């Protein structure tokens, strides 16, 4: 009895593989959970090997938390800290949970540009000819980017504690805050995957991403309290999912009411995933 082994090896960079066969697409529905998980693991390993060959791709993860923390603490810490009724130390306690909420948004952009680049090189065409679940290719991307997000979060927390941040609740509260940020970050990654599959170039994905990121980040409670903002902007921040996430993380780490913010954050994450994940998988199947 002979055994056929499927090897998940992408086509060489710059090559264009054949279009996905009907047999491969039809066979996707018969792939079991264990096989699907095995495919995700193999593809995640492929993405990790790419990072190993290109360590510069980790510069954003390593440097972004340091730069953002130092910039906002020492440029805005005095004035915003005073508005909080304290000083720069109080602003550190306010800022770090907010930056945790922001990490997933910034790192998610790399997922979209990576998917777009893989299609341009023909790697995704090779994957689509294999008898694997189409979703496993995209889920593997998200798994690796969540790992990068955890590295950035760890560096951010180290910076926060080095600058005098104090954890007012418990380690469990901190872990819950990290987990909530990861859940929301994974949901946002589906948006950028869809952008990466829909736009022609990685530069276009980055440009559109910035148009989405900037209003959401600065029109929220990440960097400063919203009470002093104009009424129309406060109305926007009330419905901004990043404000809910920042308030939830802040409550889990520093104390205060968290139930409403946590549930709204989970609802946003679930809604975004339910809408964008099927669209992204469908676009992945049909993209030419």
From TrEMBL:
<feature type="transmembrane region" description="Helical">
    <location>
        <begin position="94"/>
        <end position="116"/>
    </location>
</feature>
<keyword id="KW-1133">Transmembrane helix</keyword>
<keyword id="KW-0813">Transport</keyword>
<dbReference type="InterPro" id="IPR013525">
    <property type="entry name" value="ABC2_TM"/>
</dbReference>
<dbReference type="InterPro" id="IPR000412">
    <property type="entry name" value="ABC_2_transport"/>
</dbReference>
<feature type="transmembrane region" description="Helical">
    <location>
        <begin position="137"/>
        <end position="165"/>
    </location>
</feature>
<protein>
    <recommendedName>
        <fullName>Transport permease protein</fullName>
    </recommendedName>
</protein>
<feature type="transmembrane region" description="Helical">
    <location>
        <begin position="204"/>
        <end position="224"/>
    </location>
</feature>
<dbReference type="GO" id="GO:0140359">
    <property type="term" value="F:ABC-type transporter activity"/>
</dbReference>
<feature type="transmembrane region" description="Helical">
    <location>
        <begin position="61"/>
        <end position="82"/>
    </location>
</feature>
<dbReference type="InterPro" id="IPR047817">
    <property type="entry name" value="ABC2_TM_bact-type"/>
</dbReference>
<dbReference type="GO" id="GO:0043190">
    <property type="term" value="C:ATP-binding cassette (ABC) transporter complex"/>
</dbReference>
<feature type="region of interest" description="Disordered">
    <location>
        <begin position="1"/>
        <end position="21"/>
    </location>
</feature>
<feature type="transmembrane region" description="Helical">
    <location>
        <begin position="262"/>
        <end position="281"/>
    </location>
</feature>
<feature type="transmembrane region" description="Helical">
    <location>
        <begin position="171"/>
        <end position="197"/>
    </location>
</feature>
<feature type="domain" description="ABC transmembrane type-2">
    <location>
        <begin position="56"/>
        <end position="287"/>
    </location>
</feature>
<dbReference type="Pfam" id="PF01061">
    <property type="entry name" value="ABC2_membrane"/>
</dbReference>
<dbReference type="GO" id="GO:0046677">
    <property type="term" value="P:response to antibiotic"/>
</dbReference>
<keyword id="KW-0046">Antibiotic resistance</keyword>
<dbReference type="InterPro" id="IPR051784">
    <property type="entry name" value="Nod_factor_ABC_transporter"/>
</dbReference>
<comment type="similarity">
    <text>Belongs to the ABC-2 integral membrane protein family.</text>
</comment>
<keyword id="KW-0472">Membrane</keyword>
<keyword id="KW-0812">Transmembrane</keyword>
<keyword id="KW-1003">Cell membrane</keyword>
